[in-house]
Design goal:
The protein has five helices and no strands. It has 191 residues and is mostly helical. The protein has a single domain, classed as Up-down Bundle (Ferritin). α1 packs antiparallel against α2. It is globular. The relative contact order is 0.16. The mean pLDDT is 94.
């Protein structure tokens, strides 16, 4: 009697490889009533903001973990809250790129190649330096988002303009305010 190998439909087929079906920097035709050129430009601008936002999210998490000093608890919680808000923005921006037929930048190595946010030291910095670093990253994103929102509106991409103005700009401005107020030199107690 020969033994037959039992077939199992529940066995995962591991180590699969496939061909790339869409290259980064290209857009598919989707019926979203925007021209190819408009969608291509929008995807390029959104991917730059997406890359910088992913780095800002990572900075928030890093600084949340490395926070020190008398304001540890408050800043530890605030930075984690801001990280969560950035994560929501990242998903919105990536989904907008995909909606336009593009490919959202997602590989951390690719993000690191694209970002304009300067790399921090690997270790822990003093608290004011960490907060200043966050403010600089916000300013990079806000500068680009303001310019992109204007240009995307001119190109007829109202959806991307709305995302940038209603979500990216407003969230980053509010987070900037909260962080900047921690760098005001006022005494905690007056004698």
């Amino acid at each position: 009697m020969t033994q037959q190998k039992e077939r199992s439909d529940s066995q995962p087929m591991l180590h699969q490889h496939g061909r790339e079906i869409q290259g980064f920097g290209t857009v598919r035709q989707l019926p979203v009533a925007l021209s190819y050129d408009s969608r291509m430009y929008s995807c390029q601008r959104l991917n730059m903001i997406l890359a910088d936002s992913q780095i800002l999210y990572s900075l928030y998490k890093k600084h949340h973990w490395l926070m020190r000093g008398p304001t540890f608890y408050q800043l530890h919680l605030l930075l984690d809250k801001h990280a969560g808000e950035q994560l929501e923005l990242i998903d919105m921006i990536a989904e907008r790129v995909q909606t336009l037929g593009g490919i959202a930048v997602g590989d951390p190595r690719h993000v690191a190649e694209m970002t304009r946010v300067p790399r921090p030291p690997n270790g822990a910095e003093e608290v004011p330096a960490m907060l200043s670093r966050l403010l600089e990253a916000h300013e990079i994103i806000l500068t680009d988002a303001h310019d992109a929102a204007t240009r995307l509106a001119e190109a007829g991409d109202d959806g991307s303009n709305d995302l940038l103005v209603s979500n990216v700009i407003r969230t980053n401005e509010l987070q900037t305010w909260f962080i900047a107020e921690h760098l005001v030199d006022t005494p905690t107690v007056r004698a």
